[in-house]
Design goal:
With 241 residues, the protein is mainly alpha-helical. The chain has nine helices and no strands. It has one domain. Helix 4 packs antiparallel against helix 5, helix 5 runs antiparallel to helix 6 and helix 5 packs parallel to helix 8. The longest helix is centred in the C-terminal third of the chain and has 46 residues.
Length: 241
Amino acid sequence: MLKKVTFALRILIAYAVLSVACFLMLRTIVGYTAFRDNVQFLVFKQAYVHNVVWKTAFYIHVFSAVIALMAGFTQFSSDFLRDNPKLHRLIGKIYVGNILLINFPAGLIMGFYANGGLSGKTAFLLLDVLWFYFTLKAFASAKSRRFVDHKNYMIRSYALTFSAITLRTWNLILSNSTEIDRDDLYVIDAWLGFVPNLLIAEILIGWNRLINRSSAPKRKRHSDDHHEDAGNKQKTEYEDA
């Protein structure tokens, strides 16, 4: 009973965090629906607002990233997977297609034009390449039915998807609590936006492996007991016959 309550609370907290995150993302997106060149982040990109390639990539990323954010989160529920396998696969394909075909190309373009000099560009390009790689590996693992690998790569992929939130969160914290130069702040934020996410993802993956290893002997004993009971039953039936 306690285990079920704890699990339910974890899911509730996770969905609450995602709901707040999606609300903040949607509020940001609304600010760009007027397509003006002097709002929010565009204020700091005046050198590129007349660059059609960069601007197209920017708006594609802004309006589509939230889809990946919402779609990806549903994929971690075992109950959802068990009860809705077809829907799980459909949402998964939307998530993968969104990243590989839409946001990866847009992210590459934005990375090349990123603020913060070489360090800033490197951070965003690395983020984009890893995002593509982990998502592709997650998809390939599912296709080959290696579901443990699939889950681990999805955790890594979604950790980078969630950088859309952590980037903005760190920017809000640092800009209001420090007096760091804006260009330096941009570089720090670029790395803080996704590196801690990946570290947390690897800790979570390692923790899951540890739990699975510790529970493996119990599953084996249960399986052995089951086979022994079945053997005894067959033996009894044979003797009675």
